[in-house]
Amino acid sequence: MSTGAVELVHLRKQFGEVTAVDGIDVSIEAGEFFSLLGPSGCGKTTTLRLIAGFERPDDGKILLDGADMAATPPHRRKVNTVFQSYALFPHLDVFDNVAFGLRRAHVKKAHVRTRVLNVLEAVRLGGYEKRKPGQLSGGQQQRVALARALVLEPKVLLLDEPLGALDAKLRKALQLELKGIQEGFGITFVYVTHDQEEALTMSDRIAVMSGGHVEQIAPPEQMYEEPETVFVADFLGVSNLMKVTAEGAEGGACRTRLGDFSLRAGCGEIGRQGETHVVIRPERVVIEAYEASGENRVPGMIERVVYHGASDQLVVRLATGDLVQALFVRDGTSREWAQGTAVQVHLPVEALRVLPPGPAGGGVPTPQDVALDATALEVPAS
Amino acid sequence: MRRVRDWFANPWGRPRALGTITWLYMAWSIVPVLIAILFSFNDGRSRSVWQGFSTRWYWGDPNLSVFHDPAAKSALEQSLRLAGLDMLFAVPLGVGLAIGLTRWRGYGAKPVNYLMLFPLVTPEIVMGVSLLLVFVLLYGIALGTEAQVLGQVTFSISYVVIIVRGRLLSIGPEYEEAARDLGASPLAAFRLVLVPLLAPAVFASFIVVFALSIDDFVVTDYLSAGSPTQTVPIAIYSNARGGTTTPALNALATVMVVVTLLAVGLAYFVYRWAARSQPGTSGRALNEITALEV
Amino acid sequence: MTRRWFWPSFALPGAVWLVLLFLVPTYAVVAVAFGTVDPIFQNPVPAWNPLDWQFDTMRSVLAEFEPGHTFWIVSVRTLAYVALSVAGCLLIGYPVAYYLARHARRTKGILLVLLIVPFWVSYLMRMLAWIGLLFPDGLVNRTLIHLGVISQPVGWLDGRPSSVILALIYGYVPYLILPLYAVLDRIDRSVLEAGRDLGASPIRTFFHVTLPLSRNGILAASVLITLPMFGDYYTNDVISGSPHTSMIGNQINLYFQGGTQKTVGACLVIVLSVFLALLMSYYLWVTVRASAETKESLL
Question: Is C101 helix (H, G, I), strand (E, B) or coil?
């Protein structure tokens, strides 16, 4: 429908000894809300700055609608940025901040006025044009920064953790607003964040980055349900990762060994053989009475029961020594589990996923990790 | 006696002894200057025995008063002339150096950075001697106003760099990047964003350079060409101990103090007024103008 | 992406200025010190080429630094005066800075202004003020006679080391207090309260917490006044004027302003600069080591 497709071809950027972006290939479609997600230092901000033109790539291409932009300085790119710190000019009022780019483009004075007022209206800041940035709240500053970039009608809008400086409640409200603005303007958004929830809520597609590489590119549901690497499984949400020995496909599932137990994993790389990881989300783990039997069941003992309001979290120590978390919605049907109870942990075939072997240490969560995760855990609305 | 001791030694009160020392220090540092100013209004020729109030050493005396003595007038003029020229050259050079050194990531930046620090730790006599020698023996620059300006600018630049660089580092590169992102060329980003944001620091630099120049004695003296290029500090140095020196010298020094304090006071209020729209700067105004002289 | 020359071009004029008017002049001192003297007018003839350097003058100057000789006496005197003055400045300045940073509340603003005023009064004006007070018929003598401490006026300005040292303290103490105040002001109050909470008396808290934490500040502020003091000759000239109190700065000034032996003066400048450079390196070494220690202790 619109222009604004961005293609990164084997893009590489090095700072001295450190390789910030290590030859990534990403293709962003026109009009898409695309998130770059990853921990700090993963190269996501550098990627954004390369697209904006603040950094010169060491290798590779940046194509905007098919044309290479590598040699174009930032002020000639039809790409605009919303900075993490907003970088609103403190000596100019809101109107002049938003008009800054139009004036650089020598837009006629009357047009400047209408366009600025229109965009301020669109971000619900009508009437604020005479204020200085210092007199605005964090959320208002954020919207001025957005208006300042949007008024230039860029093909692509780059956003560098634009909600990072705001408190949690405001962030939630602005997430929805941002998504609405993106859909309304039909502009390609490239959104950098370290907040997985933010990325999952807003994006059409997400690229998870780590160590300068792209781990996986997928829509949110797929990213969550079908992680392709240990890193993605571990980074997004709470995952139970277990080190197993895979023995290849057999009847549409992968036969794996977890200690003395045999598990069949029905998704992921079911053809894999050798040392690797399997993963299962806590909400897919089923806890059964110790007397239950069947395939994919491992005995264990409940170590901890954590009350989460709408749900219960169980931490179970398997007979193999692995820790597994299970999550239940408190709908009145499930039974109450007590600490110290011996149980059978059912890891359903269709929920158990085979991953390629991940980096050492990225595997089984320690009890401390579990405790940390437990406090950060967000329960999906029931 | 006991009450006095208790007043000093109350463990929950404020340390009175320290407070007393502090106030005594303040008095000690300022009262002598006030007395010297008082003696500029002495009716007699003595600078140490009070003989009644008069303004003769300012304008009353037809030959010796500041207003009528050509040497005093010339010293005052030379001090202000040098301060003006020093500000004119040192501030642009220092601002440029600060901006260049902060934003330039090349190989040349580091040595220049070190070079910039040296004038700050070099005793003035070493600078005075080296400038004197190089002007006379190598550059063939005549001593006098030109030489004095060249010397003063040389030690003033580093102070400007320190002030402006501090501000630049607190501004960060984002504002310029934002301007570039919105379509401004490098030069337009510099003019429309960096210059206005740096204005308070540039203003502070002017004041500090003014004070440095007015107060300087050694370099200015080494590069002076006798009486026509004498400044007020040189006049004080030459005549302070003289038996025939009159309170006119105190009057000359007082005029200089008043001019400086007026300039600084005025600058302070202008600075506060100008910086009021920039959050986080107004509170630091006092520090930025004054503390950086150290 | 800015063009390569854009930012360097801002720095270029200032950098060229510093090269021509700081670096080259410094080399000129070396060229004069290791140069020769025109036999008729006794004018220095600089040796710009290091291959032409003559070391006779430097050798004879260094010989005068042997114990008992002229420059030895002057150097020892300079070191003693500077050491006593810095100690005096710390003794006066530390309590003031400490009070300002820790305890002054309502009065802090006015005290800070008073602290800064001396910066805006010319150094020589402040010396002039003391000369008026120290004259034989000045306020100091009259007060002391009135109190019965002395019976005859004392010639404070007739070459007394004590007057010179007191004048140096008076002149330089503001330059020590301000940076010291800045350092003390940054010390976290809760650290001190922790000291009290853990059972240390105020005095012990001061000696075991505040003082060690401000050690670097004390060092930095001392260096800040030590460097110019070593080159100071004007304080001595206006307060004493006697050769019996002359410091290394007076000696250098004598060769350049009065006498004709500029080559000797240049040698003295080099000796002084090398000494100060060593002092500075020691200071940098200490601070770098200290900051490395803090980093280690944080890890």
Answer: helix
- Counting every residue written for chain B, the total comes to 294
Q: Could you read off the pLDDT of B45-69 as tens digits, one per residue?
A: 888 888 889 888 998 888 888 888 9
Q: How many CB pairs lie under 8 A apart between chains B and C?
A: 264
Which pLDDT belongs to residue B292?
A: 40
Q: Residue B61 — left, alpha, or beta (φ > 0 → left; ψ -120 to 50 → alpha)? A: beta
First to last CA, chain B: 42
Rounded to whole angstroms, the Cα distance separating B116 from B93 reads 12
Rounded Cα distance between C69 and A2, Å, is 90
pLDDT for residue B130? 95
Report how far residue A324's alpha carbon sits from residue A243's, in angstroms, rounded to the nearest whole number: 12
Question: Would the CB atoms of A80 and B192 count as touching at under 8 Å?
Answer: no
Per-residue pLDDT of C169-222, as tens digits, reads: 999 999 999 989 988 888 877 777 777 777 777 778 778 878 888 888 899 899
Interface residue of B20, B25, B39 to substitute, partner C, most C CBs within 10 Å: B25
Distances (CA, A) of C142 to B277, C128, C132, C137, C162: 55, 18, 12, 7, 19
Work out whether strand A353-355 and strand A273-280 pair parallel, antiparallel, or are unpaired: antiparallel
Of B182, B185, B197, the CB nearest to A91: B197
**Environment class of A174 (CB within 10 Å of its CB; exposed 0-12, middle 13-18, buried 19+):** buried
Length of chain A: 382
Neighbours of chain A (3+ CB pairs under 8 A): B, C
What is this structure's pTM? Answer: 0.82
- CA of residue C182 relative to chain centroid, distance: 19
Q: Determine the Cα–Cα distance for residues C156 and C233; give it in Å rounded to an integer.
A: 18
pLDDT digits (tens, 9 = 90+) for A143-199: 999 999 999 989 999 999 988 878 888 888 888 888 888 888 889 999 999 988 889
Q: What is the dihedral of CA C80, C86, C88, C90, to 10 degrees?
A: -150
CA C40 to centroid of chain Cα atoms: 38
Identify the residue whose tokens are 């350092």. C183
